[in-house]
Amino acid sequence: MRLSIPLLSCLLASGLLAACASTPPPRPTHVTVKVDWTDPAKFTDTRTDQCHSAVAPEEWLGQLARYAQARARNLLKSGQTLEVTITDIQRAGQCEPWRGPRMSQIRMLTTIYPPMIKLHFQLRNADGTILAQGDRTLTDLAYLDRGVPFENNDPLRYEKRLLDDWLRRGVDKPPRR
User: Fold this and answer.
1) What is the DSSP string of 14-80?
2) Could you give the CA distance from residue 139 to residue 91 in angstroms, rounded to a whole number?
3) The pLDDT of residue 9
4) In Å, how far are 30, 32, 62, 102, 162 from 85, measured between CA atoms?
5) Cα separation of 51 and 44, whole Å?
6) Residues 159-166: contacts with CB within 8 Å, 24+ apart?
7) Using CA atoms, how far apart are residues 34 and 6, in angstroms rounded to an integer?
8) From first to last of its 177 residues, what are the pLDDT tens digits of the chain?
């Protein structure tokens, strides 16, 4: 039996329509992540920084915000929204001007200068329901014992690892002690 092209087209079209009608609508696949910060002039790192860096805090805060957004998008469930406000940061290391002019602008990484990020967050479901919210203090007292994360020359590598650890563990989980 040979079918004509118009008849074959109609059969294919009706089969596609039936398949589409029985397929449930797709779930939302977007994830929204917003990262902001409070006044950097009040951050521990800015108040105690002896490095006098030419890089403004807003520049490295912007880098951390973009990093957190990119990482969270990959780890959150479809349709979720995460809003993060960084409220304080102490970057890993500290400049020690008493070491002399040649060393005064080099951030010394020692165990007495661990990285710390304080933040407030809110995680919402696709329907707007708040799944989790709260304040977190992220710190890693053994940051030098865990090896070098990322690239050796990334000045924010330890702060990025703090964010990674928090996001991978789950933003709704309390911090480990």
Assistant:
1) HHHHHHHHHSPPPPP---EEEEEE--GGGSHHHHH--S--SS-HHHHHHHHHHHHHHHHHHHSPTT-
2) 10
3) 52
4) 21, 14, 12, 36, 15
5) 13
6) 159/64, 159/89, 159/91, 159/92, 159/115, 159/117, 160/64, 160/67, 161/115, 162/115, 162/116, 162/117, 162/138, 163/64, 163/67, 163/68, 163/71, 163/117, 163/138, 164/71, 165/138, 165/140, 166/136, 166/138
7) 52
8) 554 555 445 544 455 445 455 555 444 467 899 999 999 989 888 776 666 666 778 888 999 999 999 999 988 988 999 999 999 999 988 877 677 676 666 777 888 899 999 999 999 999 999 999 999 999 999 988 887 666 678 889 999 999 999 999 988 777 665
Query: How big is the CA angle at 38 (ends 32 and 43), to the nearest 5 degrees?
Result: 130
3-state helix, strand, coil in the chain (%, to 5): 35, 20, 45
The pLDDT score that the predictor gives to residue 160 is 94
Per-domain residue ranges of the chain? 27-169
The residue whose two tokens read 């009706």 is 14
The count of other CB atoms within 10 Å of the CB of residue 152 is 7
Tell me which residue has tokens 């805090």.
57
